[in-house]
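Sample pair:
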Amino acid sequence: MMLADTATKPHDRLKEFLTDDMAAVNQLIRTRMASDHAPRIPEVTAHLVEAGGKRIRPMMTLAAARLCGYGGDDHQKLAATVEFIHTATLLHDDVVDESGQRRGRPTANLLWDNKSSVLVGDYLFARAFQLMVETGSLKVLDILANAAATIAEGEVLQLTAAQNLATTEEIYAQVIRGKTAALFEAATEVGGVIAGAPDAQVAALARYGDALGMSFQIVDDLLDYGGTSGAMGKNAGDDFRERKLTLPVIKAVARADAGERAFWVRVIEKGDQRDGDLEEALRLMRSHGTLEETRTEALRHAANARGALTSLPDHPLRDMLADLADFVVARIS
């Protein structure tokens, strides 16, 4: 398939290369999110599914399967499964975080209510498991079920770590592995499994997904202290105002003297934030070099993602996946 020169971003090139597969996945999503008995379900799911997300995760499943030479259509069911799991977690997250906006639009819990968001999220999880069972692969079911458990575990861990200055870098890594990397890893791994790829290739795809997901989340956290709202879809300083302990802050707290620690206790643990506090937080992070260290960590994961692909077959999709790893960190490079 010839790709248009205008498709410059790797996820756009992936989308173009996988046009037929993505059309089938989108149709599956529309069909399976329907309900004959509860019209609220398609109303809520359509609001989020049609909100303009890039569908990176399902594309990773499709790309992994095609890269490994798959010629069937079960990878489309798995791609829809991955998107349903992702959408379900977003519905639940917005309730937990009491969010009012996602992707520039009002959240489902704001337009309807928390009960609808939670229950429709549950419905999508159920639909996801129906789809993955239809592939007939116990290995696929094992991978995606474990990913779903890891995601839930990460969310609960984040609750207990929130606003707690004792949170370590290790706990942070566990949280973002559950929050983001687990589904990235499962998305690519099941693509290789359904294609019947050798174990070494499946393991390489899993490593790629994990490293890409870790890099993706660290970059997102770093951009909150140095990006623009246009670059990341949120306002700079949102994480600070929400008192989230992300990697740059965790590193700064670990190196704080008594006066600096008192500042972090006030703004993070006690939530007593005043004019100029964001600027002071940035000054402390810069003085301890934690923003640059966080950037280095994101770049390391992106390099690991690229490296994991080297044992996979030579294919245009392999190059696009490698470029995707570069694109994730391009805004901080």
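The chain has 17 helices and two strands.
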